[in-house]
Amino acid sequence: MRLSQVDLNLFIVFDAIYREGGITAASKRLHLSQPAVSHALSRLREVVGDPLFERRGNDMIPTPLARTLAGTIVGSLGELEQMMHRLGHFDPATTQRRFTIAVRAWHELTMLPRLMTLVRREAPQVELAIVRIERRALEEDLESGELDVAVDVEWPVGPDVRKERLKAESLVVLARRDHPAIDGKLSLATYLAQEHVLVTGRRRGGGYEDLALARLGVSRRIRVRCQQHAAANEVVSESDLLVTMARSQAAQINRRAKNQVLPFPAEIAPMQVFLYWHARTEQDPAVQWLRQAVARSLGKRVREAP
To answer: CATH for 171-269?
Structure first.
């Protein structure tokens, strides 16, 4: 079969369904009716001789062939889109582009309110999708265009992924106001003697602070694991447990509970926060603007692309 015999718009529909996971969401992304998207999918199924997606509840699950095709289709469309963006003039005041940013939950809380203020002022028609970062897929998602940028602690990446340091975050420890062992001061011995809440999306293993403690030859007892810093802060306010987090995070979530906020009781390096993007978007004016916007929302201006 020759490529000239295939309607290339079918690949755009495939890309939307693959990214969004459903017909309804894909139709909204493409500004098409659901019947139009379903019809396009039926035509592509006939072309490739495979169902491509199988419905499970409200989700469309890609078949093995669809996953194989996705690497080429999503990547190729992403490169074409980037080329068109480079050829065109980018004006944040009028663009209707959708940007996808991957972050950790604690970065979302500190970054998103300021980022939305900036977007409303400079790019009122821009749509943002803030998604959970998946480190194993980070490079692939940046390369394919699934993600425009990502914000995370320092992480090893390949040569095609660019990164820029945004800030360094010191750690603090939160304890309830009337904690029986802590009254405005916290020693390492007292810290280690208490039980702790660890905030993490991982099912096992410690956090950044546990790696730092291990280098000092000590460890702590983690009594509770949870996924949200706000939930951990509430647990701390009603127990003798402690939680460790970035200072900016504590400033955001502790306004109501008013737990004690104490310096981490050991000399450890601050957490480095980085902005990540793919080399192929280096000259894309839209992504350049996005990188500047994300950096400004976190208190820094990144370098301009050469």
So the answer is: 3.40.190.10
